[in-house]
Design brief:
This protein is mostly helical and 132 residues long. The radius of gyration is 34 Å and the shape is elongated. The N and C termini lie far apart (82 Å).
């Protein structure tokens, strides 16, 4: 315990590096550090610019092409299903656990992201189960 107190006293008595050394620093030393910081900033900026152009942009293009191919396969599948069912998609099964609403949203029965070309309309489900 006495050794710990002695170490703390010595540490408190020692001058701190930030203020004591800055008062003794010459003007040339300040400008040299400032120029070194600017040079480092320029190098790091160039590094991240290269990473952006040579890594991020090609990765974005590859992902966009992959999504385009997946969506094209999905569209072909939908057209195949339509061709099997005389030009229209088969009815979506009306299970009791799908699209359950106790009361309508302020904007209507369907969700905010409702898409009439893809989603099943909840109005049919609500009317058929609640007999309005």
């Amino acid at each position: 315990m006495l050794a710990r107190t002695a170490i703390r006293a010595v540490a408190r008595a020692a001058p701190r590096g930030s203020r004591a050394s800055s008062a003794d620093a010459s003007a040339g030393d300040y400008f040299a550090k400032r120029d070194a910081v600017r040079a480092h900033a320029a190098e790091v900026t160039q590094l991240w610019r290269r990473i952006s152009f040579f890594v991020c942009v090609p990765a974005t293009i590859v992902c966009a092409l992959w999504v385009r191919n997946v969506e094209a396969e999905h569209a072909e599948h939908v057209e195949h299903i339509k061709a099997e069912n005389d030009g229209h998609l088969p009815d979506i099964p009306q299970y009791d656990y799908l699209n359950r609403r106790v009361k309508p949203y302020p904007w209507g029965m369907n969700s905010l992201f409702f898409n009439p070309h893809v989603s099943c309309s909840i109005i049919f489900v609500f009317v058929s189960t609640h007999h309005l």
